[in-house]
Amino acid sequence: MIQILKMAIRDLGRNRRRSFFSALALGMGLALLLLIASVIEGEYRGSMDSSIRLQSGHLQVRAKSYDEDKTSLAWEDLIEDPGQIAGQIASLPAVKIATPRLFASGIVARGDESAGVRIIGIDPSSEANAPYRDGLVAGEFLRADDREGVLIGQSLANKLNLSMGDQVSLLVNTSDGEVDEQLFTIRGMFSTRTPSYDQSTVFLPLGKAQAITRAENHASTIFVLLEDREQAGAVASALHTDQYAVTTWEDMNEFLLQTEQFAQGYMVMIYLIVLGVTATVIVNTLVMAVFERTREIGILSAMGMRGGRIMAMFFAESGLLAVIGILMGLVIGGLLVLYATNVGFYIGDFGVTGMLLGERIYAYLTLSDTITLTIIAFIVTLLAALYPALLAARLEPVDALHGGKLA
Fold first, then answer.
1. In the chain, how many domains are there?
2. For the chain: N or C, fewer Cβ within 10 A?
3. Do residues 196 and 268 share a domain?
4. Is residue 56 part of a domain?
5. Does residue 86 sit within a domain?
C-alpha cells in the first residue's frame, strides 16, 4: 500500500500544474457548497429568531375562538383580565417573560399618504419589548400613561415622509365592528432591521389600545418567552385549560419550518450538481494520466502487477487530489463563511410571505454541515476515479507496450 501511495504521489507530481488546478476545482466547489449551506442555515436561524422575538414568542395563550388571521376584537375572542393571567404564567420557573398584547388592524394617514398597519398594544415596561426599545433610532419609548403617542417603524416613517413629533391620523377597527379615528403624535421611531415588519407595525400603550378599540380590560394574547425554547411543549401542557388555547413557536412558525425542510432537500441537488461538475475535472485529469502513461502501465502489467493494484494506484491518486482539494476548500470556504458571518449580504426590503427576513442575511456554518460536505466531496472524488482506473486496468500489456489503443 505504501508503494502504491508513493507511486501516486510521484505520478501527480509529473504534471503539477494540472494536479494543482484539479485539486483547486474541487476546493472551489467545496468552498461554494460551504458558503451556500451556511447562508441557508443563517437565513433560517435569522428568520426564526426574528419571528420569535417580534411575532410569535415561544408560546402564546389565546382564547380558543380567537382567529389570528381575522384579528378579531370581539370580547368572546379575547382574554379577560390579561394582566392577572400573565402574572400567573410568569410565575412558572421555565417562563422568562409573559406579557399581554392586543392586536388590531388599522390605517395610518397623514395628508394624502396612508398605509395599512397592524396596531399592537403593549405593556411598555415589559422586557419583551427589548427589540423595539434597543432599536430606537429617534425619540423615546412609550410610557404606560401616554394617551396621545405612538411608536412607529423607521421604514414606515420613510414611506410616509414622517418625522419626530409629527401628528398622524390613526384609523382603528373596534370591538363593535366600527372604525374609530384619532390623532396621535409620533413619540419614537424604531428599527428591528426587518423592513417588512417595521413598515407595517405601530405600537400603542396597552391601555390606550384597549380604549380606542373598545376592548376594555381584554387582550388578544399572552406573549410568552421561555428560558429554553425546547421546553415549549412541556410548558404548553402545564398551561392547558378548557378556556384557552396554548400555541407553541413551532405551530406558529410551521411555514418557516416547512420551508427549511424543503430547502434542505433542494440543497442535496445543488450539492450533487456542483460536485458533479468538479468530479468531471478529476475524471479528465486521470484519463489524461492514463493516456500519457499507457506504456508505463503496460510495463507494470508485464512485470506482473494485477489490474486491481493498477486500479488502486489511480484511486490513490484520486484520494490524494481529494485530500488536497478538501483542505483548499476548507480554507477558502472558511474565509468566505467568515466574511458572510460578520458582514453578511444586504438584501434590503425583500419581503416573503410567512417569513421575517432582515435587511441582511448572515451565514451560520454548523459542524455537521462541514463534516457532511467534506465526506460527500471525498466520496464523489473517489468515485470519479472509477472510470479512469478501469480504463487503465483493462489495458493489454502487449498493446500498451507498443502504445496501443485503450480497451
1. 2
2. N
3. no
4. no
5. no
CB 165 within 8 A of CB 138: no
The pLDDT assigned to 172 comes to 93
Cell for 304? 506482473
Rounded CA separation 275/211 (Å):
61
Q: Are residues 31 and 69 in the same domain?
A: no
Reported as a single tens digit per residue, the pLDDT across 258-316 is 887 787 777 778 888 888 888 888 888 777 766 666 666 666 665 656 666 777 777 78
373 and 346 within one domain:
yes
The closest alpha carbon to 290, from 313, 309, 308, 306, belongs to: 313
Residue ranges for the chain with pLDDT beneath 70: 1, 3-8, 10-13, 289-308, 349-355, 391-407
Q: What is the pTM of this model?
A: 0.79
Residue 27 lies in a domain: yes
Give the domain extent around 193.
Answer: 65-75+97-220
**Judgement on whether residues 199 and 288 belong to the same structural domain of the protein:** no
DSSP 193-259: S-HHHHTSEEEEEHHHHHHHTT--SEESEEEEEES-GGGHHHHHHHH--SSEEEEEHHHHTHHHHHH
Distances (CA, A) of 12 to 18, 106, 357: 9, 70, 47
Backbone phi and psi for residue 405, each to the nearest 5 degrees, phi listed first: -75, 155
Q: How many CA atoms lie within 13 A of 255 on its CB side?
A: 9
